[in-house]
């Protein structure tokens, strides 16, 4: 029941009291009028209570509003942390990228970066090197094995050559790289492995 409903009951009570006064030829009618008046007063008090509840509700809403501002502040903080996280991943990614691919390769890539490729270079540094290669679930030699197998299977020759050198830097031996390519022959096909062996052979002979 709303405050407006309670106000309606007050008006109805006052009207009833008037009708009893007009026809008040008996004591019973007067008593009824008095009772009606008392009921109206009670309804009025209830209305006051409802108003108090409404005020309390307004306070609760106001509190929610303040909480909303707090949440907005927290959201801003989270956004700031996300920005800081990108910077950390970028730094970690560049460190790992240099350790795996070598300074000369990375320096050449950085030197070739322009306005067209800058976003892509930032993406692979943060995401590939700063997010995936830094995960603790696999060590670097194992990640190199996976990477060689995938690149050989997909026929990405230039990337495969680069990661064969990276695999050596990560501690894989010549024989272990050969084992990975044999595995490719079984599960991805002899042509893919044949091409991969042809790419790996001169690199491993350096």
Secondary structure blueprint with pairings:
Layout: H1 3-22, H2 27-101, H3 103-112, H4 118-132, H5 140-154, H6 157-169, H7 174-188, H8 190-204
Explain what this protein looks like in three dimensions.
- With 206 residues, the protein is mainly alpha-helical.
- It has helices spanning 3-22, 27-101, 103-112, 118-132, 140-154, 157-169, 174-188, 190-204.
- The longest helix is centred in the first third of the chain and has 75 residues, at 27-101.
- It is globular and about 45 Å long.
What is the global morphology? globular
Kindly report how far apart the N and C termini lie. Answer: 89 Å
Q: Considering DSSP H and I runs of 4 or more, what fraction of the residues is helical? A: over 70%
Summarize the helix and strand pattern as letters.
HHHHHHHH
Q: Overall mean pLDDT score?
A: 74
Low-pLDDT ranges: 1-81
- Helix tally equals 8
Structural class: mainly alpha
Could you describe the largest sheet, including whether it forms a barrel?
Answer: none
- β-strand percent reads under 5%
Roughly how many Å is the radius of gyration? 40 Å
- Using DSSP, what is the number of strands? 0
Care to give the gist of this entry?
This protein is mainly alpha-helical and 206 residues long.
């Amino acid at each position: 029941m709303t405050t407006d409903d309670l106000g309606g009951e007050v008006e109805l009570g006052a009207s009833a009291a008037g009708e009893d006064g007009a026809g008040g030829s008996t004591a019973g009618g007067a008593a009824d009028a008095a009772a009606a008046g008392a009921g109206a007063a009670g309804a009025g008090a209830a209305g006051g209570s409802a108003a108090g509840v409404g005020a309390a509700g307004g306070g609760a809403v106001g509190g929610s509003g303040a909480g909303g501002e707090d949440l907005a502040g927290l959201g801003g903080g989270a956004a700031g942390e996300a920005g800081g996280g990108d910077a950390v991943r970028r730094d970690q990614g560049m460190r790992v990228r240099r350790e795996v691919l070598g300074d000369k390769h990375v320096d050449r890539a950085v030197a070739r970066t322009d306005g067209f490729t800058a976003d892509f270079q930032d993406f692979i540094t943060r995401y590939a090197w700063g997010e995936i290669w830094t995960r603790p679930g696999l060590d670097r030699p194992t990640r190199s094995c996976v990477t060689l197998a995938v690149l050989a299977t997909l026929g990405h020759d230039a990337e495969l050559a680069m990661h064969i050198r990276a695999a050596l830097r990560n501690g894989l031996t010549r024989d272990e790289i050969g084992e990975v390519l044999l595995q490719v022959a079984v599960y991805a096909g002899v042509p893919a492995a044949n091409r991969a062996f042809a790419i790996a052979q001169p690199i491993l002979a350096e």
